[in-house]
Amino acid sequence: MADNLTVEADDLATAEGGELKFGASLMVSSGVLHDVMNTLRSRSPAARLDIVVNHGQHLCQLLVDGDLEFFIANADIWANDIRFAITPLTPRPASIFCSADHPLVHNKEPITSTLLLNYPWAFINLTATTENHIRHLLNLTENTALPIGLNCNDFNLLRHATLKSNYLLFTWNDWLADDLKEGVIVDLKYQLTPELPQEIFYLNYAIVQVAGKTLSPIAQRAITLIQEFAQKPIPADPAS
């Protein structure tokens, strides 16, 4: 409580300034965070932003250690953890992507779930939750092994591997928007047979903070902005 009072006093003393330390997963950093950061800077020009971009487990540890006020990530694994207060945000569109030169793009046969398993898959920070989501998405049994070819936390490496090989990349749409518009990467969900419901391609994410802990005024402003931008309609196909 003393720490909370100190943070609030420092923030009030510096008017629209203050220091904000929060975290964002790699996927979130490529989407709504850009708009939030720009707006926050314009409204609080004297503020110092300290943003940590990393995978959810690392951000959670920083939060517990008191190094972050909150973080934004897929929070499914902490949904029942009483240590945290979790605020769900509007799910973000995701899909299965490949290069425009991939054999599946030029294949005249229907693209089925079974056919997708003939190619290696690429992921960013693969978790058991994501694996289960893929199995559900493709209507696979829980014991079905996914052909994982690449798992890393580097966007550039994943993008290069997808463009230059036969990897199938499962990820959020946000950071591939330019490639989709240029036609060098293809969204496969529209070519699957049978066609799958579009809503199952959306991934959940949320704001995670320590339960019962008072946030600084600038953190509260940031969370309000995040919720506002997250509620804006997002086309499932960024090329549209």
UniProtKB/TrEMBL annotation:
Protein name: LysR substrate-binding domain-containing protein
Entry-linked InterPro entries: HTH-type_LysR_regulators, LysR_subst-bd
GO biological process, one term: regulation of DNA-templated transcription
Pfam families: LysR_substrate
Signal peptide interval: none
GO cellular component: cytosol
Residue ranges constituting the LysR substrate-binding domain according to the UniProt record: 16-228
Gene3D superfamilies xrefs: 3.40.190.290
Source organism of the structure: Pseudomonas fluorescens
